[in-house]
């Protein structure tokens, strides 16, 4: 055991004492946060673009302006009460905003009525301007940037021009930007609304009937037969959804950690093989002990990552909890509480350890066969593709956690560590959970046995990829007789 400890300590200190480890430790959550916020930042950083509508009257311009306004209203609603919007349970602040909008208030006035003055109102993406010209030839210089239109912000380039004919002719959308389709989609939506109104009027039906029907729509309360996780009786709340959200988070974290740390095993083993360090280590350490020590070292690295992230997240969450809206703070605590429940935490820990042992042993074995990183990359490709499958399954679970495909694929050992976590909140039968855990244990033992054989061939005997391929071929029925 002492030799295992010494190998594990040597490798662990080698990883955590490198400045790149701590740089990656700090940058990873920052980059993930940036990645999640990037779409919002990109949307908010878009410059205001100006368009014009050339038509007789203002019917189409008004309809287009209403469509653009609806998008802005939706963004403000999400900013005011994201949890309420997603759950369909609006807060008093959101209800006040909706009432003000229904009464005909502007977005600015409705936001003030909702008490959301502290919320930064998003700028309008597109603003209408008076037509600087009325025909295609005259409008071209404005679209090309050769001439500018007058706006409240001073002279600006014209982003798009929409020509609406008097008859039922084709509407023309002119713009030099052929990649951004946001305004074009709104133009189509505006035309659809106008057409619907005309059809209603032709049938003698007022379009206001649809608005009245929407106002009289009854609310739908989601309830469950099982005891709810709150004091609100059978009504489904965030506390009931928290276990599923926690399972998705934990499955992704497991995937991310395994995907990250097994690379240490591969690269470290390649370096030791190429530098002939194996020979020195094997003079004082038995090969099974060295294999176990290396697996334990990188497991300790993964645990270090989780511990630092957990402590950092707890400190930041506690420091900012006073500034968070009550509903968001309650949701975060509900998810955190679900993570700590033994019914989810224990399967997650076992899945992580067993999944790490399976994938870690495979990457160790591959590293022992390769002399260069280029050689290892050819072997890593199918493994990386295989590791991407659980990510697709997480997407499936978000839409339907009880999908039959999740149940079937969870019995494939290489996917079991990830998919078992996703299935726990759906309360699968106890025998199935135990069966999946036993399957993971058996699969991990088999992989460890095979990996140790491959590791011995590569580390001790200097075997390469081709040699191990021949060794596996001899295990197939009929191969020994053919070679003899």
TrEMBL record:
Region (Disordered): 216-235
Membrane topology, as annotated: Multi-pass membrane protein
Keyword Cell wall biogenesis/degradation: no
Origin: domain of life: Bacteria
Domain ABC-2 type transporter transmembrane span(s) in chain numbering: 19-452
InterPro entries: ABC2_TM
Main location: membrane
Compartments where located: Membrane
Statement: the UniProt record of this protein carries the keyword Membrane: yes
Keywords: Membrane, Transmembrane, Transmembrane helix
Residue stretches of biased makeup (Basic and acidic residues): 216-225
Coiled coil: none
UniProt signal peptide: none
Transmembrane segments: 12-38, 244-266, 295-324, 344-367, 379-398, 404-422, 429-451
Name of the protein: ABC-2 type transporter transmembrane domain-containing protein
